[in-house]
Amino acid sequence: MRRDLEAWLKDSGAGEDLQTLLLAAAGACAKISALVRAGELAGVLGSAGTGNVQGEVQKTLDVLANDVMLKMCRDAGVLAGAASEEEDEPVWFGDRAGAPYLMLFDPLDGSSNIDVNVSIGTIISVLERPDGAGSGVGPFLQKGRQQKAAAYSVYGPQTQLIVTVGKGATGFTLDAESGRWLETAPKMAIPEATREFSINMSNMRHWESPVMLYIRDCLAGKQGPRGKDFNMRWVAAMVADVHRIMSRGGVFMYPRDARDPSKPGKLRLMYEGNPMSLLVEQAGGAAFNGIEDILDVEPTELHQRVAVMMGSKEEVDVLRKAHAEKVDAAVSV
Ligand code: AFP
């Protein structure tokens, strides 16, 4: 008999309030999954005709998923406030001012995949509400290491949910008939060695030299310094690309590049970098931003960006070494 999420949470050592919040978030993911599956039949595809704080066009599903997550987690009663990638400012629930938790989430990661029926996902990060905190952005600006839980749901051929409360990473599959999340990957473990990388190669000309050199060596294959052939995959939804790595190893990168020097990468620290890094570390992998572990980055803004290199330890170590050597010479691949 497989355990369901509720039974797993009871055994996980998480306090009752955290269990309640994670069950509500998982319920929201199940609801979002149903909307994603219905697609055109539910009239949820296409653009919402609005933009988010990062200037990106919002899809109808981005907006719906955001509303579903906010409402269901607020109704759980243990959340004082939430910040979403789709909202400019955090939402504080005035009637829940004393509640113990704060949540940050990306309601639909990989929006450009929605209308073409390719995998997308939802990411959540749970923090403790600092004593006395009741408004503004400040209470959300906690380092990734302070997260009390993180999870992502991937809407692919199956809908899966990967959760950590800081004691490993566990995977569940949504049973569409009963609506229950059943435990299908009790102890996710990222293999230390890999022959697979995941990066948007079209940005190569903008990368900094350590990443250029790393990819050049991977592409050189057996005859090159790495002595092995590498494969490449890019779904363009971080959740899906990292889920593959959580399941079978690999390294995922969205490094800093020269397109906009004011931004240290494309991905968001609080909604993507931190929760996915915690899950990757809990599965035995590593996550680095070119300078330090992503979980040690001091956040300064809610929507701040971060460079991301995460996955199998051996590859992240090669990237650490390349960054430590600070090769400044122009490199061509
Ligand atoms: P969207 O949600 O705007 O599609 O962005 C997805 C994402 O933040 C991340 O999930 C992907 O890894 C990355 O962007 C894809 O970026 P490219 O457009 O450069 O492929």
Entry summary:
The chain has seven helices and 17 strands.
Compressed to H and E, one letter per element, the order equals HHEEHEEEEEEEEEHEHEEHEEEH
CATH superfamily of the largest domain: Fructose-1,6-Bisphosphatase, subunit A, domain 1
Residue share in helices? 25-40%
The fraction of residues in strands falls at 15-25%
pLDDT under 50 segments (min length 5)? none
Side by side, the strands of the main sheet go: 4-3-5-6-7-8-9-10
Give the N-to-C terminal Cα separation. 52 Å
Rounded mean pLDDT score:
94
CATH class of the largest domain: Alpha Beta
- Quick one: how many beta strands? 17
Per CATH, the architecture of the largest domain is 2-Layer Sandwich
CATH topology of the largest domain: Fructose-1,6-Bisphosphatase, Chain A, domain 1
Distinct ligands: 1,6-di-O-phosphono-alpha-D-fructofuranose
Count of distinct structural domains: 2
Total of helices? 7
Structural class: alpha+beta
Characterize the overall form.
Answer: globular
Radius of gyration: 19 Å
From the structure above, extract its key features.
single chain; 333 residues; alpha+beta; Fructose-1,6-Bisphosphatase, Chain A, domain 1; D-Maltodextrin-Binding Protein, domain 2; 2 domains; 8-stranded mixed sheet; 5-stranded mixed sheet; 7 helices; binds 1,6-di-O-phosphono-alpha-D-fructofuranose
Structural summary, described in words:
The chain is α+β, with helices and mostly antiparallel strands and 333 residues long. It folds into two domains: 5-185, Fructose-1,6-Bisphosphatase, Chain A, domain 1; 196-332, D-Maltodextrin-Binding Protein, domain 2 (3-Layer(aba) Sandwich), CATH 3.40.190. The chain has seven helices and 17 strands. The chain has helices at 5-11, 16-38, 60-75, 209-219, 238-248, 269-282, 313-324; strands at residues 47-51, 57-59, 79-84, 91-92, 101-109, 120-128, 149-155, 159-164, 170-175, 180-185, 196-198, 231-232, 251-254, 267-268, 286-288, 305-306, 308-311. It has an eight-stranded mixed beta sheet with strand order 4-3-5-6-7-8-9-10, with helices on both faces. Helix 4 links the parallel strand 11 (196-198) and strand 12. Helix 2 runs antiparallel to helix 3 and helix 4 packs across helix 7 (313-324). The protein is globular, with a radius of gyration of 19 Å. 50% of the residues are buried. The model has no long low-confidence stretch (mean pLDDT 94). The structure holds 1,6-di-O-phosphono-alpha-D-fructofuranose. 1,6-di-O-phosphono-alpha-D-fructofuranose is lined by residues 56, 109-112, 200, 236-238, 254, 266-267.
